[in-house]
Design a protein that fits this description.
Blueprint: H1 7-18, H2 20-32, H3 38-53, H4 66-84
């Protein structure tokens, strides 16, 4: 158990972990059910694959202008001063 993890969080995580097999079985049943709507079957398949293989990486494109960089540098400097004191 992590240092900051509460007993309640661990208990909740343990309860959820005990339901993994039945949840995967339910997803498998939906994925294999020829009478289920195609959208439900696709969703079930995606959930199974995400858990088995991990979700695909997502790329994020961002444009940083000089103005944006100055703004974030200013915020970072302010935080440094607050955390380390004005003497640093």
């Amino acid at each position: 158990m992590a240092r900051n993890e509460s007993k309640q969080t661990k208990t909740t995580r343990d309860k959820a972990a005990s339901l993994i097999d039945s949840a995967l079985n339910a997803l498998r049943e939906i994925a294999e059910n020829q009478e289920a709507p195609a959208s439900a079957r696709v969703s079930a398949c995606k959930e199974i694959l995400d858990r088995a293989e991990g979700r695909p990486r997502q790329t994020v494109e961002a444009t940083v202008t000089d103005e944006t960089a100055k703004k974030y540098d200013s915020i970072a400097n302010q935080l440094r001063l607050e955390l380390l004191g004005a003497d640093e």
